[in-house]
Amino acid sequence: MAAVTYFAPQPHPSELPDRFASPFAQSPPHALARRAIDLLRTQVHRTELGLDAPGGGKMFGVLVVADGDRIGYLCAFSGMLRGSWALRGFVPAVFDAVARDAVWPAGEAELARIDRRIHELEREAAPLRVELAELDAGHELATRRLRELHDDNRRARHEARLVPLEGAARHALDQASRRDTAERKRLVALGHEARAALAARLRNVDDERLALEQHRTDRSRVLLRQIHDSYVLASARGERRALRDLFAPEAPPGGAGDCAAPKLLAHAYAHGLRPLALAEVWWGAPPATGGRHDGAFYPACRGKCGPILAHMLDGLAAEPPPVFGARAIAVDQPRVVFEDRWLVVVDKPCGLLSVPGRSGALRDSVVVRLKQRYPDATGPLLVHRLDLDTSGLLLAAKDRETHAALQAMFARREIEKRYVAWLEAPVDGDHGVIELALRVDVDDRPRQIHDPVHGKAAITEWRVLERTASRTRVALVPRTGRTHQLRVHAAHALGLGAPIAGDPLYARASAPEERMLLHAEAIGFVHPRTGERLELELPAPF
Question: In this structure, which topology does domain 335-537 adopt according to CATH?
């Protein structure tokens, strides 16, 4: 087993946490967990482990435990490190190594063979596709030229028929027309014949490739199911459940059970250790998708770890996971900034949802509160949204016609918005444009990540307003409206490389602000009903 590293000197009982903090909380880790992280940092050889290579960073975790009367900590890394599941000084993986080894090596070799054959078929199909495209292009060119020739012939015959013709001359014109028709049919037939043979060869290759891809999918599904069967996780009560059961009826996402937190808890329970505090930290270069910063603490991901940790913490004196959007907001909020018979612009406070939560458990929101204020209106209908932790100007329509008109204006980018934010680090340059495609992180919703292949285009203009020794105040103008666009564009290394201060998802500060320092300060558009230009500004409260 990975031995417990004991604190020296031992902490006083007053330094121990009263309850195990929720691993999903955004708050900084307990002091003992941070102390354990600092100690682990002295043992991790970043260069040897390749952590500073592009994309080479890794999530590490520590679990403070009680071993009888002694207090110490365990260490873990997420997934694999240096191509291995087990390294000296770190707890092992959760899965049953014997059960995994019984299926994985052979299964991996089989999938590798299938992949090699698929790649061979792709290489075989590539020149056939080129040859077929060239054949089609050549046939199209020949057809077009023949059509032009026949059009000239047809016009000549038409002119010839404008004068009286003898029987032999008329017959010759008819024969010429029939020759053109026959020539066109021969060209079409030759083209079809040549194409059919080549297309048949390509179809055979593609059919084999598609069959192999389906076979690979089927075998991967079976193999993954067998792999998941090697994960059996215990709770603090001692109840053991299979990984697949925790995600049923859906299949577990890739990497489920391989994060640091499940590894640490599983090892602690297996060796009679009582968990006291947990911390997970990213070390090394950020991933290409962004969203992780060297030395920053992060809560557990809900997509992969939500069901797992809910089970593993059952029976432990642990805090419940936070419910985002449940903060008490004064009843007179949101304050109206502008209003007429067709629309209303309000000042959304930080901590109030724009719309009710998807689960239905969180109803309190701008929409619900506005409907209470305007019970007789067909609206209000929000035209756009602000994140829970963002404050500022929010536009709503009072009727469906105005709502449709405003939404069309947003789609045509005719509504201008400007935000102001404090970034938690200096930035290079005074202004610029960020273009980073974004998509949701399916394993850690609602976090968004940069994905140049599958992401949607996202564009942000920025300009520096003020600088301090450690921070930068910026104006941000979104030219697209992607979820968390400004937050990711600020935090990503290919963007400004400086997260918005207090951002609970993307900031790197270990002591977060009281709130995220992002505010929608201005909105401008032509009123869809009056035709007048509206320019509204609301200074940031920070």
Answer: Pseudouridine synthase (3.30.2350)
* 146: CB partners within 8 A, 6+ apart: 183, 184, 187
CB 264 within 8 A of CB 63: yes
Residue 387 designated active-site: yes
**pLDDT band with cut points at 50, 70 and 90 for residue 326:** low
Mean pLDDT of 233-241: 96
Contact partners, residue 334, CB within 8 Å, separation at least 6: 346, 347, 348, 349, 352, 366, 369, 370, 394
Task: Report cis status (omega within 30 of 0) of the bond before 478.
Answer: no
What was the pLDDT predicted at 377? 74
Q: How far is CA 60 from CA 42, 295, 318, 345, 422, in A?
A: 13, 10, 21, 45, 29
- CA dist., res. 233 & res. 31, Å (int): 28
Tell me, letter by letter, the H, E, C secondary structure of 316-367: CCECCCCCCCCCCCCCCCCEEEEECCCEEEEEECCCCCCCCCCCCCCCCCHH
Are 256 and 241 contacting, i.e. CB atoms less than 8 angstroms apart? no
Cα dihedral across residues 216, 222, 227, 228: positive or negative: positive
Please write the tens of the pLDDT for every residue from 413-426.
Answer: 999 999 999 999 99
pLDDT at residue 361, as a whole number: 59
136, 206, 364, 387: the active-site residue: 387
Rounded Cα gap, residues 223 and 107, in angstroms: 7
What are the tokens at 51?
């952590």
Reported as a single tens digit per residue, the pLDDT across 489-502 is 999 999 999 999 99
Mean pLDDT estimate for the chain? 92
How many H helices and E strands in the chain? 10, 18
pTM above 0.85, yes or no: no
148 DSSP assignment? H
pLDDT band at 26 (very low <50, low <70, confident <90, very high): confident
